[in-house]
What we know:
Blueprint: H1 14-17, H2 34-39, H3 41-59, H4 63-70, E1 76-78, H5 86-89, H6 99-121, H7 131-155, H8 179-196, H9 212-226, H10 233-252, H11 254-257, H12 265-268, E2 280-284, E3 335-337, H13 339-344, H14 352-356, E4 357-358, E5 360-362, E6 369-370, H15 373-378, E7 389-390, E8 395-399, E9 413-415, H16 417-420, E10 439-440, H17 447-450, E11 464-468, H18 470-482, H19 488-502, H20 508-511, H21 520-531, H22 537-543, H23 547-554, H24 572-577, H25 581-584
Parallel strand pairs: 8-9
Antiparallel strand pairs: 1-3, 2-11, 4-10, 5-8, 6-7
Helix pairs in contact: 3-6, 3-7, 6-7, 7-8, 8-9, 9-10, 9-18, 10-18, 18-19, 18-21
Subcellular location: Cell outer membrane
Protein name: RagB/SusD family nutrient uptake outer membrane protein
Organism: Phocaeicola sartorii
Amino acid sequence: MKYGKKYMFAACAALLLGVQSCDLEEYNPAGSTPDNVYKEQAGFDALVNSAYAFWGGQFYGREDFVLLLNGGGDLWINIANCGYGRQMSKYEELTASVGQIKNTWNRLYEIINDCNAGLERIDRVNFKDKKLRDIRFGELSFMRAYAYWHLVEIYGNVDLRTKETSAESLSMSCHRSSYEDLYDLMLTDAQNAVDNLPVDPYPVKDVGRATSKAAYGLLARIALTRVSYCDSQSDKDKYYKMAEDAAQYVIDNQSALKVSLYDTPDEVFDPNNNKTNKEAMFVVTHSTESSLNMQAKNPNRLHMYFHASYSARAGMVQDYEYGNDKNAKSGSMAMMPTRYLLELYNENIDARYNAWFREEYKLNTPQAYAWTKDQLDYFEKPSSMVGQVIQPGETALLFTKKKMADKRNLPYAVVDIDDTYAADGSVSKSANFNIHFPTLLKYEDASLESRGLPTNSQVGANDVITMRLPEMYFIVAECEMMKSGGNKEIARARINDIRRRAAVPGKEAEMEVGADKMTIDFILEERAREYCGEFMRWFDLKRTGKLVEYVKAHNPDIPLIQPHHAWRPIPQMFLDSILNPDEFGQNEGYN
């Protein structure tokens, strides 16, 4: 018997998800009950796999998390400062009825419910392979902790559920759990994952399963976040120690855990390394063959969301090398870096900028391009250049973070930082320039060409790295800076480990920093340089209490930011579905 994704969506009950309950028979074509289906190893594996599926199909690979976690902070703004997804990215008209708010809530609780269903049944499963019981226990524990971490950090102290939601529990009252209880469960689950997960995926071909390195990384991340809910320094020190111990274990045991830093930034996001990335600690898979995503209708679209417009400009055409700029126009779903982010890099010594951003486009047609009056006018170049020729392979476009002298008279088109942004950091009002900026390259998808798909295809298949080894170095550094009796020399050493790897060859000494730089603001700057675009920034600013301060200081196109935006609203459909909506309450600041 072949088992599908899952046989029961009674888990999606109205008390949690605000959708209509589902008939069990609708998802059970063989007529078996869930208990019977999940009792067999194949059925149980299908349930475990379902806990992985939404991460790729609904979150890491789609626009919702781009807007929720990269948007709304100091590093990214909507292309041309447009209004697409403004509710999440700019806090405009952010209400409890916004679709992405509801969808994210629903999907996270569905993951949690799959995990609860599996954890309740795991000791009744007829495992043919006895070691599989502990591994699957570790995976379900990991996934539940990972889902709750997202849920709590996005929505606040929500309803803690450790039992499967059944059809009989549709009409119930719900109650907010304490952050202490929520984080106790997350930390227990993360420790259970540490204790039970193997070094290699099981089966080993299943890239994307949680393994030992991911478990340690999640324990470190959750413990560090837990600090922000502590009142006393002694309590903070307890979780700083927990976070640092887990992170340092990974640093000290890289060989055993099968994880290591690449030698250069270029290698980290080289598309050729995507499926076998040695720096990745956890990936959300989008493989067309993997059993863990089951989301053919929801492929990875991240390769579309960070591009500047380049095609149809100065003779350029869209191609595989420069990527899909279909969304790179005002009013579309695309994000551009803020001026602040670009100016954080000193590209003369820091190789990350040129490795992870594209400024230059060389003419990619077999024939030369002769400048036309329309294109010259568009780029504010002199009409005397009409008919001047750019040869194939020569620079046609330059969208740069530099300030360029005599930029209008150069033989190619230039949009420099002062064209794209105003002096205060806001996006330029010039419609000719505010869709041209340095393009983030972390999500380029080389598989489109190898799979024979058109250059403008949305059907990406890259895995998304959601946890990388450098995070462990940053966690150790932050703990040493912030705990009682911490050692800033240790913090400095861990930060310099990452900065030396980031250095332009021969500039390693210039990239090193002293212990005097070990402040939370410098750590946030360095995390921005390392992790921009990787769905971490909103969590980082929230955890450190810097969200409002940094947005106001560095992203003037988000003027509506208020302290209550550190949490998104509780979805209205959830409040409408429970018996005690007034008691449960909406998050502060939302109607």
